[in-house]
Inverse folding.
């Protein structure tokens, strides 16, 4: 849930979009947490932005992309804060185009760079797009959502050519935060409800790439806060999900092995017996 320091507009209820000037809200700190919508901020003024397990000190104009799956916080460090905020849902941006998947966008997907620095000329090109969206959204009965979507799409296109910050820092409790993000990524892969659906993230390296950290850093953080290695947690979850599928579905062992990311059923059988002391077929027989 959004903090009172930032607008919680009608867009959350209506599934639409809204735009604000940062003079209204940019001078207030935002507590670390997730929001219910996507947000693009065009910022001026100094401030400290923390995104997932990383932080960056902003001392020049920037374009910031906030993802509802990733927690973030904002701490203003100067009295003057300018620019715009655009809050929207995936449904609004998609309109009638079901192919829009913001979680697959290079600007919003997990592990992407959330911040892009802009120079004076780039700010001058981006600012009118936000101003135009604000004007369109204030048009009342004459409101045209297609015009707002067009501006948003132009902003997204321009952002692809902007440089990210060169220096991030590790904020306090970064290890705890990255552990939480790892666990949330793991949880979101389950339950598996179709034999046509396979795990997208199977190894510690897969998770590290999604979180934009080195696998050794991920392993240290996870072990520090859970007492177990990343590999152990993944194995425990795979065993649990395998048991669920063996007991609750009629899928073949080969299908279960496939959806859980094993290249061959024999690999799955060996893995399962190693971690449980029994075989998949024995678990399935015991349910009768």
């Amino acid at each position: 849930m959004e903090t009172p320091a930032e607008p919680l507009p009608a867009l959350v209820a209506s599934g639409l979009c809204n735009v604000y000037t940062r003079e209204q809200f940019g001078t207030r700190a935002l507590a670390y947490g997730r929001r219910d919508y996507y947000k693009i901020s065009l910022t001026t003024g100094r401030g400290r932005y923390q995104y997932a397990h990383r932080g960056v000190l902003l001392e020049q104009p920037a374009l910031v992309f906030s993802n509802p799956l990733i927690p973030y916080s904002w701490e203003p460090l100067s009295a003057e804060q300018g620019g715009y905020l655009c809050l929207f849902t995936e449904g609004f941006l998609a309109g009638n185009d079901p192919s829009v998947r913001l979680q697959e966008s290079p600007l919003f997907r997990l592990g992407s760079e959330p911040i892009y620095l802009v120079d004076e000329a780039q700010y001058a090109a981006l600012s009118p797009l936000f101003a135009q969206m604000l004007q369109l959204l204030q048009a009342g009965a004459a409101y045209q959502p297609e015009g707002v979507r067009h501006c948003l799409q132009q902003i997204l296109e321009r952002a692809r050519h902007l440089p990210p910050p060169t220096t991030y820092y590790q904020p306090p409790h970064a290890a705890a935060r990255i552990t939480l993000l790892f666990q949330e990524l793991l949880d979101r892969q389950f339950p598996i409800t179709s034999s046509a659906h396979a795990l997208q993230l199977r190894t510690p390296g897969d998770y590290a790439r999604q979180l934009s950290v080195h696998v050794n850093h991920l392993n240290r953080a996870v072990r520090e806060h859970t007492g177990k290695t990343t590999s152990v947690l993944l194995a425990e979850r795979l065993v649990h999900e395998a048991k669920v599928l063996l007991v609750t579905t009629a899928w073949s062992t080969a299908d279960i092995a496939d959806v859980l990311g094993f290249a061959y059923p024999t690999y799955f059988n060996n893995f399962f017996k190693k971690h449980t002391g029994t075989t998949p077929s024995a678990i399935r027989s015991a349910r009768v």
About this structure: The domain at 174-286 is CATH 1.10.10.60 (Arc Repressor Mutant, subunit A). Confidence is low (pLDDT under 50) at residues 8-15. Residues 230-248 form the longest helix (19 residues).
